[in-house]
Specification:
The protein has 348 residues and is α+β, with helices and mostly antiparallel strands. It has three domains: 52 residues, Alpha-Beta Complex (Molybdopterin biosynthesis moea protein, domain 2); 221 residues, Hypothetical protein af1432 (Orthogonal Bundle), CATH 1.10.3210; 51 residues. The protein is built from twelve helices and ten strands. The longest helix is centred in the middle third of the chain and has 20 residues. Bound molecules: fe (ii) ion (FE2). Fe (ii) ion binds next to loops.
């Protein structure tokens, strides 16, 4: 399986993954052969790219943190919380159950790098984002070694719910390609408080869950919102989610911006450590992110193109790659030929 940017997707390619909409509805199933109209629809939905199966990459496994069925279930859950006619049917125990499943599955992948490009529909960003932030947050939370199972479950709940206050903000404001009016901007900035109020009013979650949600846009230096808390005044859950939230937002295709590469997002986070982020968390997080995700195509300095095959956790800029189309395997870290090459570009 390997990743193909949507611009390079062609009729006849075999889908290597299920593709869901933001409500968890299955749009295309793994194994589906793309038709002309599918290619057109993928582009129209703002999906940045897809994983395909082909002869070149049949034996390449792209590590994923949660099973497709769980992703679907979590998407449906978050989506339901946004629907006026559905949210009252969502039970607190069920939210905790889904969060617990996410925690268990992410823990089972403990030790793995985050190697994934989440293929999502740009208009449904908030639903995909909430699920992915839960995955990234639990991965980071587990890597700190400071949180037990119960606490990681709590972290997953906070992450799934952190943006639920956006249910009060119109879609065309959230997805606006124009500048926002002052009134719209204030509403967007209020969403952590709106998330908090929604949970207080309709559920009976612990204060630490509600506080984590309320504080997810606070900055380490006290310049965030809504309360301008700083440093260790901000809950540990919120500090973890802040890192995951920004990484996921930057690497996503949004109606108003193209995705930034994982290395660009890591670079942003590192340059804003101390201002926005807890430095201890940044140090751990950046070691968990594969800047060249497995399955992605890259340009080598000798002009050839290759697919990233495996990452060296200690040397993330120099993975093992397989050259297109002949299939020569090069280790950029230790191979004789590979050591002389560099990666110039990542296609995503
Ligand atoms: Fe947010």
């Amino acid at each position: 399986m390997r990743y193909i940017p949507v611009a390079d997707v062609e009729k006849g390619m075999e889908l290597g993954q299920n593709i869901y909409d933001g409500a968890g509805g299955l749009l295309w199933e793994k194994g589906f052969f793309l038709m002309d109209e599918t290619v057109w629809k993928l582009q129209n939905l703002g999906i940045p790219g897809i994983y395909i199966e082909d002869e070149f990459s049949w034996d390449l496994e792209v590590p994923r943190f949660i099973a497709p069925e769980l992703k679907q279930e979590a998407l449906r859950l978050v989506h339901d919380l946004f629907q006026e006619e559905r949210y009252q049917e969502v039970e607190q125990d069920y939210i905790q159950e889904v969060a617990g499943k996410i925690t268990r599955q992410v823990l089972a992948e403990r030790g793995r790098m985050y190697n994934l490009i989440d293929t999502r529909i740009s208009e449904d960003y908030t639903f995909f984002h909430s699920v992915n932030v839960a995955v990234l947050s639990v991965m980071l939370g587990a890597a700190t070694g400071n949180l037990g199972l119960e606490e990681l479950n709590t972290l997953a709940v906070v992450a799934l719910l952190h943006d639920v206050g956006k249910r009060y903000v119109e879609q065309d404001v959230l997805n606006a390609r124009r500048g926002l009016t002052e009134e719209e901007r204030l509403l967007v900035v209020q969403h952590p408080k709106l998330s908090y109020d929604f949970l207080q009013e309709h559920f009976d979650f612990s204060p630490e869950i509600c506080t984590g949600v309320l504080e997810h846009h606070e900055w380490y230096n006290g310049c965030g919102y809504p309360m301008r808390r700083s440093g260790y005044e901000i809950s540990y859950y919120a500090r973890i989610i802040k890192v995951a939230d920004v990484f996921d937002a930057l690497t996503s295709r949004l109606p108003y911006h193209d995705p930034i590469s994982p290395s660009g997002a890591v670079d942003y986070i590192m340059s804003n450590t101390w201002a926005e982020f807890d430095p201890d968390l940044v140090e751990i997080f950046t070691k968990k992110i594969a800047v060249y995700p497995v399955g992605c195509e890259v340009a080598l300095s000798d002009g050839r193109r290759a697919v990233v095959w495996e990452n060296h956790p200690e040397s993330l800029l120099r993975p093992i790659v397989k050259v297109l189309p002949e299939g020569e395997v090069l280790d950029l870290e230790s191979g004789r030929e590979g050591k002389e090459l560099a990666i110039l570009e990542l296609y995503m």
